[in-house]
Write a structure and sequence with these properties.
The chain is α/β, with parallel strands linked by helices. The protein has a single domain (6-247), classed as Class I glutamine amidotransferase (GATase) domain (Rossmann fold, 3-Layer(aba) Sandwich). The chain contains six helices and eleven strands. It has a nine-stranded mixed β-sheet with strand order 2-1-3-4-11-10-9-6-7, with helices on both faces. Strands 5-8 form a two-stranded antiparallel ribbon. Strand 10 (201-205) and strand 11 (211-214) form a beta hairpin. The mean pLDDT is 90.
């Protein structure tokens, strides 16, 4: 019997989407474990024991000091060596919403000392709506086999991706997803782009293609019945995204 890949889902105070993320990876063929950060700090669990790291959404530590900042400091400070070892071992790493913010804060995205931040939505308010995403990166292990747009919801107040040099990020092919408008074009316009990210950037990868972060919640659309439009809008469910990550490490 083939052993299923193991996915580590770290849980901090305020994290609230870990269960959904676990369901998505299990549907994709993996085993998951939701582990409190305290268990990682004490050595009860180690990233070395897992094949994938998936950082969930929510409001870690109440987003004190800014979205994902304290969780990012935890990841870089407490587990920096483990993260670097995971990258060196070519383990896929995934971050969604607050988890994406934390990976950016920890310096894993966009990577190579490129400066970026996820800041307040241009609307000035929390946005909760469904969006359509264009997978534009064919080098990441997570997205290289995606052939159609994806639909999933967003739920964030600080999701606008701002890079010190967006041109460099784009030239390095690190943009993974863009928001699409109703005619299937990348957009900066509200509400199809809920936060106002320049060039419609919804998610990015690092240069290795192993680390992926995005603001929308693909874990909340892994079966057709979860979509309120149920096939009446272009774009499929997001299960293939999770299947790709699992397939990258499956024996």
């Amino acid at each position: 019997m083939t052993t299923k890949p193991k996915v580590l889902i770290p849980v901090a105070l305020g994290t609230n989407r870990d269960g959904d993320l676990a369901d998505a990876f299990q549907a994709a063929g993996a085993d998951t474990e939701q582990v409190p950060l305290t268990a990682l700090r004490t050595g009860e669990r180690s990233l070395a024991d897992y094949q994938i790291l998936a950082v969930p959404g929510g409001f870690s530590y109440g987003d004190a000091l800014g979205a994902g900042r304290l969780l990012g400091l935890d990841l870089a400070g407490w587990f920096g060596e483990q993260l670097q070892a995971a990258v060196a071992a070519e383990k896929p790493i995934f971050g969604v919403c607050n988890g994406f913010q934390a990976l950016v804060r920890a310096g894993l995205l966009p990577g190579e000392d490129r400066k970026a931040v996820l800041t307040e939505n241009l609307s000035g308010r929390f946005e909760c709506r469904w969006v359509t995403l264009d997978p534009v990166n064919d080098t990441s292990v997570w997205t290289k086999d995606l052939r159609e747009p994806l639909r999933c919801p967003v739920a964030h107040g600080e999701g606008r991706f701002v890079a010190e040099d967006l041109g460099e990020v784009e030239q390095a092919a690190l943009v993974a997803f863009r928001y699409l408008d109703e005619v299937g074009q990348p957009t900066e316009a509200y509400p199809a782009n809920p936060n106002g990210s320049a060039a419609g950037v919804a998610g990015v990868t690092d240069s290795s293609g192993l680390v992926l972060g995005l603001m929308p919640h693909p874990e909340d659309h892994i079966v057709a019945r979860q979509d309120p439009l149920r096939g009446r809008a272009s774009g499929g469910n997001c299960l293939p995204l999770f299947q790709a990550g699992v397939a990258a490490v499956a024996g």
